[in-house]
Design brief:
311 residues, Inosine-uridine Nucleoside N-ribohydrolase, Chain A, 9-stranded mixed sheet, two-stranded antiparallel sheet, binds alpha-D-ribofuranose, binds calcium ion, Ribo_hydro-like
Length: 311
């Protein structure tokens, strides 16, 4: 059982990651913190709370984080996720309150009070985690590892060589990569493989419970965003769930320890993760980088988690 805090920017694929974290018996979701990324901070907060209301997990504390990247203006993911950040589905209004403290302080509270070390899972920009590491240096030892969806080796989805989460806040990503804390990075190399194929999407359509029906509607919208773009995928790549899926069964992935740096000053490459796969530099490996996934296992995990909801 992995004790986690999920820092996310819902976001269609964040919603699936959150659903798996709630459904899986292998994950103990201690808290959710939200970031400005796919949508502005107030919208991603609302989206996270709507999703937890839908899943009847109003017991999980939620707190909103930074309103913008550390040093830059916010890039929005509206082209992929729509004006609400979760376009395509009817979501319940949140029926509980978020915490009065910030994301940084909720993370600090959980790490202080929880008896075991906690895994931080990041499926949006690294802003909140970078702030936390900077403000609460004394709590770094309470972090088991940080698992991040972000970056790419030779791949991009927001720029030719840049992935959205890292590109939104490269300075924050650099703080996290340079922190010395155990890191697992799920870049586009593995995320692009984590696709749901049309027959699997059809299986999800046939699951009759309110959570599956909502996720199914969200996938339909998200598929339209992908369909009209240049990717040429056979299915629908679900980026963010790669993080919680790795925690559930790391054996379903291949990985390699590499040094991961973040470009913050490139004219064409700001936000690029520079992954030293062949150890060409003398930069010390700082992350386990995931490169491949057992796609069928992943799709079955999503489907089985959706089936587990009884309402
Ligand atoms: O590049 C993919 C990432 O950007 C995902 O986390 C998605 O939700 C968006 O935030
Ligand atoms: Ca996300």
């Amino acid at each position: 059982m992995e004790d986690i805090i999920l820092d996310c920017d819902p976001g269609h694929d964040d919603a699936v990651a959150l659903m798996i974290a709630v459904a899986s018996k292998d994950i103990n979701l201690l808290a959710v913190t939200t970031s400005a990324g796919n949508q502005k901070h107030s919208q991603t907060l609302r989206n996270a709370m709507s999703l937890l209301t839908l899943m009847k997990r109003q017991d999980i504390p939620v707190a909103s984080g930074n309103t913008k990247p550390l040093m830059r203006e916010l890039i929005s993911g509206v082209s992929m996720h729509g004006i609400t950040g979760l376009d395509g589905a009817e979501l319940p209004n949140p029926d509980f309150f978020s915490q009065s403290m910030s994301a940084v302080e909720l993370i600090a509270k959980i790490l202080t009070e929880h008896p075991k070390k906690v895994t931080l899972v990041v499926t949006g920009p690294c802003t909140n985690i970078a702030l936390f590491l900077s403000v609460h240096f004394e709590l770094r030892s309470r972090i088991k590892q940080i698992v991040i969806l972000g970056g790419g080796m030779g791949l991009g989805n927001w720029g030719p060589t840049t992935e959205f989460n890292i590109q939104v806040d490269p300075e924050a990503a650099k703080i996290v990569m340079d922190s010395g804390i155990p890191l697992v990075l799920a870049p586009l190399n593995v995320a692009f493989e984590a696709q749901l194929l049309p027959d699997e999407i059809s299986k999800i359509h046939r699951i009759k419970n309110s959570v599956a029906e909502t996720i199914s509607d969200l996938m339909d919208f998200y598929g339209i965003s992908f369909g009209k773009q240049r990717w040429g995928f056979k299915g629908l790549p679900l980026y963010d769930p790669c993080t919680v899926a790795w925690l559930i069964d790391p054996s379903k992935f291949t990985s390699k320890r590499c040094n991961v740096g973040v470009e913050t000053k490139g004219e064409l490459t700001t936000g690029e993760t520079v992954i030293d796969y062949y150890h060409i530099t003398n930069r010390k490996p700082n992350a386990d980088v995931l490169f491949h996934i057992d796609r069928k296992w992943f799709a079955d995990l999503v489907i089985d988690c959706l089936k587990s909801f009884k309402f």
